[in-house]
Structure formats: C-alpha cells, structure tokens
Amino acid sequence: MIQRKLQGTGVAIVTPFRRDYSIDFPALERLLKHLLENKVDYIVVLGTTGESATLNKDEKKALLNFVIDYVDKKVPVIAGFGGNNTREVVSSIKHYNFTGIDAVLSVAPYYNKPTQKGLLNHYKEISIASPVPVILYNVPGRTGVNIAAETTLELAHKCTNIIAVKEASGNFEQMMHILRDKPEDFMLISGEDTLTLPMISMGASGVISVTANAFPKEYGELVQLALKGKFTEAMKIQSNMLEIMQTLFVEGNPAGIKAALKIKGILENYFRPPLEPVSRQTYNKLVKLIDAL
Predict the structure, then answer these.
(1) CB atoms < 10 A from the CB of 228, how many?
(2) In this structure, what DSSP letter does residue 73 have?
C-alpha cells in the first residue's frame, strides 16, 4: 500500500542549472546522494520547487528518468503532472511511461480560477487517466484558487486512486474538516515547512518539504519525532530551525533553498528566468544561520 511508504518526509527537489541554463546532472546526482544518505522517505520531482514551469517536455522526461535510475527504488518517486489545461494534463499522463513512478502530484489549475465544480471535473479526469495513485496539491497562494475541503473530500471518497492532498493553504479549519471526514487511508500532507509540526499534531502523515533539500537529517528528525508523538523534542528542532526556514522563503521559492544548497556545496546558484537568486543580504544571513546550525 503506497500510503505506508509516503509517511514522513518527502522532498520536493530543486532542479540544478548551469550558467548556460542547461540542467546540471552531476549536481542533481550530488543532491540525490545527499538526500538518500540522510534517509528521506520519498522524492518529488517536477514540482514548483523544481522550476518545472521553465522545463520543456524533453527536459522533464530526462530529469525524471535520471532520478528514477539513480534512486533505483530505494525510496518512492513522485512526479509532478499538473497544469491549467485539463486536456493537456490528461494527454501527458496517458502518453507517459510510468515505470518507476509511484504516484502523481497534481497542482490545482492556476490562473483560470475554476469553480469547485471545475476542480472536481479536472481531478476526476486526471484520476481516470492516471495508472498510479494521485496526490492533490492545494497551494492557493500560487494558483489563485483554493480546493475547498468539500471538494477534496468528494474526490477522496469517489476516486479510489486519489490517495492524499498536499495542503499548503495554511487554513487549519479546512484541514480539520478534511481530517474529520476523510476516508481512513486518505492522507493529509503538509505543504508548508513551518506548519508541519502542528499539522502532524492534528493528524497529518508528514510533509513534502522544501527545507529538507538542504537539511534532510535535521528536518527528517523533526518529522519522525512528531509522528511518534514526541512533540516537545520536535519543538526544540523546530525552534532551532525556525529562522532558517523563514529566511529560505523570504525572497521566494526556490531562491532561498538554492542559496542554502550553494552554501553547502551541493550545487550552483543558477535559475531560469524569470527567477533570480536571493539578494546578497539574504545570502549572507543564510551563511550565518547555517554556520550556527
């Protein structure tokens, strides 16, 4: 059962680039080695953190295949398949070879601002098309639309291969509604690193994390302690890491986490336009915080 494998810390990995904007596969290998050695629970590829909006179809395929081959079934691999054109998303799923992919993470349609009925139909079509389980991704701060609790619950009850929602709305009332009325095996996954601890205390099963790209050991320990109900110990780690987590996002994602990975010597601090590196002030602050940690 895939849900058991997705307990704990998943990592929404960045996409390393070279100065010429090409994908830096040796740096990607260093990142994956770093994550596996520090025992993350699963890997998420082609998410927002991976700058997937700037990758073409061939690059996405090459990136995903590289990750699948390197991970070699040591942990589950989740692939991002989302967009604001339902037919195109469904077509891309139907025409993809899902060997080595354990589940799909599908962000809510952005910019169009569909109604809740539109969201229902969008995800129902994805559910029918997908040969692997589907995780909903609700991030209204980026998409401009919120997947209401009622919509998530209807999908959870009616579409058996929709197994979880990554919640990044910050709306605890909405999350409590989902946790109260969801099917027993349906999972609520944190999509906000600073909110993972309280979400687990409510009943969330873990996190798909940005912070864990650079700090898989520390953040993974926080999550495991919380899942074991050791909230006092988990809170100590949260407190130690809080300023770093806040600083990672102060100039947007993945700008902060790529700066941290540069500081740790894992990859170079390059982006595809329109994204840019963090300011020198934020970079220097991260240097001091990482040294202190």
Answers:
(1) 11
(2) T
- Kind plus residue range of the DSSP H or E element containing 149: helix 149-158
Token pair recorded at residue 238: 């949260």
Say yes or no: domain 2-227 is CATH 3.40.50.150.
Answer: no
Cα dihedral: 263, 265, 268, 269 (round 10): -10
Burial readout 24-62 (b: 16 or more C-beta within 10 A, e: otherwise)? beebbebbbebbbebebbbbbbbbbbbbbeebeeeebee
Structure tokens at 214: 């650079």
Greatest extent of the chain over all pairs of C-alpha atoms, in Å: 50
Phi, psi of 185 (to 5 degrees): -95, 5
For the question of whether the overall pTM of this predicted structure is more than 0.70, the answer is yes
Q: What is the pLDDT along the chain (293 residues), one digit of tens a residue?
A: 788 889 999 999 999 999 999 999 999 999 999 999 999 999 999 999 999 999 999 999 999 999 999 999 999 999 999 999 999 999 999 999 999 999 999 999 999 999 999 999 999 999 999 999 999 999 999 999 999 999 999 999 999 999 999 999 999 999 999 999 999 999 999 999 999 999 999 999 999 999 999 999 999 999 999 999 999 999 999 999 999 999 999 999 999 999 999 999 999 999 999 999 999 999 999 999 999 98
Domain boundaries along the sequence of the chain: 2-227
User: Which of the residues are catalytic?
Assistant: 137, 166
Check if the beta carbon of residue 65 is closer than 8 Å to that of residue 104.
no
The set of residues, in sequence order, having a beta carbon less than 8 Å from that of 41 and lying 6+ positions away, is 5, 6, 7, 8, 9, 10, 75, 76, 206, 220
CA-to-CA distance for 120 and 130, rounded, in angstroms?
A: 15
